[in-house]
Design goal:
The chain is mainly alpha-helical. It has one domain. About 70% of the residues lie in helices and about 0% in strands.
Length: about 160
């Protein structure tokens, strides 16, 4: 009986490990296809390039020093990264329609949320994935779950302000 249970458990764990990274992989693949799409706008390409760079960094740092992260960690970070970037672009455009000051306040809201929520306790030489004149001015070393939570709460307040 033990001979049957142990291999079954190992197979189940391997299957969940392979399946668990589907959200991470889906976000990565979507970003890659957007970058490769000649019909994509420059803004879409910049956002997608940042996602690829951030996800590569996440994968590299997430398993460093033998610390094995579970699939929930990668999936959650990937989904929150996407939500963070999409909301940043949408909310910045909405704020820009109201005023330049509101647009700047919205940009600060998101950049502060990203910079105040590092994911790993390390500094890297080139933390930003793209040049500072890029549309996406965030560090790749960000806890996207915390940053998204912080930014979404504050951005709603900014949008509602008169």
């Amino acid at each position: 009986m033990k001979k049957l249970i142990i291999p079954t458990m190992v197979l189940a764990m391997l299957a969940s490990e392979a399946k668990g990274q589907t959200l991470y992989q889906a976000v990565y693949d979507k970003a890659k296809s957007t970058v490769d799409n000649p019909a994509a706008t420059e803004a879409e390409k910049q956002a997608s390039l940042f996602k690829i760079k951030a996800l590569d960094y996440l994968k590299q740092q997430g398993n460093i020093n033998g610390q094995k992260r579970d699939s929930y960690f990668f999936d959650s970070q990937a989904v929150n990264l996407t939500s963070f970037i999409e909301d940043f672009l949408t909310n910045t455009q909405t704020a820009a329609k109201a005023s330049k000051a509101k647009e700047q306040e919205m940009i600060r809201c998101y950049t502060n949320a990203a910079s105040k929520n590092p994911l790993f306790p390390i500094e890297i030489e080139n933390e930003k994935a793209l040049p500072t004149e890029s549309l996406i001015p965030f560090s790749v070393n960000t806890d996207w779950e915390k940053a998204y939570d912080n930014a979404s709460t504050l951005s709603r307040t900014i949008i509602k302000k008169k």
